[in-house]
Amino acid sequence: MMSVRTALLLLLAPLLSAALITGARAGAGETPWVGVQGAEVRLLSGRVVDGTLEAGIEIRLAPGWKTYWRYPGDSGVPPDFDWSGSRNLGIIAVAYPAPRRFSDGASGYSIGYKGAVVFPVTARIAAPGTPSRLDLTLDFAVCEALCVPAQAKLALDIPADGGSAVPALEAARAALPVPAPLGTAATPGIVAIDLDDTAAPPLVTVLARAKAPASADLFAEGPDGSWALPLPARKPGEDGLVRFTFALDGMPAGTDWSRAPLRLTLTDAGKAIETIAPLPAK
């Protein structure tokens, strides 16, 4: 069966030309910048710590352009990272910085990044003490008024002992959403989750504590990529509390949502947390 990402890219391709550019190795720790319409991309590598390589993908966007988070919202295409050409590397994991929401110009919102973003990457060295190769094919979308599907191929040869710390990677990793339990007393924090199943569809309310309630934002994801939950509406209250509400909609037909775990990302005053919170039982 054709994936949603593939279907969207095929839909866009006849209208807009995709960019395919390959970046060769520039020097220790980074590839050259690879230019696509509205953006440029490079691959970074840093230290090897306890057999794990610290790396990253950096995207710089032209003014007015954006790219997407792992869940793109009402419109858009999430990035796809293909590491199959890599050598001497086991599990490769990509972490997502906290995103922002943007109007998509059609009464909806997309979720993603403007300006610049660094996706931190960790890769387990299969045979420690020997050289490795980090090889990426990145399929993603960059959008201004319209979206352009793009592809960039980048590769770095990694010395056996890795390299030095890269400030951009260190900063990106430090800014990632921090795991936080449901009911935490910290700020920012997810205080509680409630559900009104008398509404049709059911209405979810997430109570959060924020330093800046008027600008704090919440992004809700289901247990897997087949869920496409609406973006929550924000209603600031007193004492730093804010209520986010959204309809329990966008699930696959026949889904039993009772106790399903939601992944909640809360952004507030330059900080971000991530909480796994189960929906209340029916």
TrEMBL record:
Highest taxon listed in the record's lineage: Bacteria
InterPro entries found in the cross-reference section: DsbDN
Pfam family, one: DsbD_N
Signal sequence segment: 1-26
Residues annotated as domain Thiol:disulfide interchange protein DsbD N-terminal: 51-156
Keyword annotations of the record: Signal
UniProt name for this protein: DsbC/DsbD-like thiol-disulfide interchange protein
Naturally occurring in which organism (per UniProt): Aquabacter spiritensis
Lineage: Bacteria, Pseudomonadati, Pseudomonadota, Alphaproteobacteria, Hyphomicrobiales
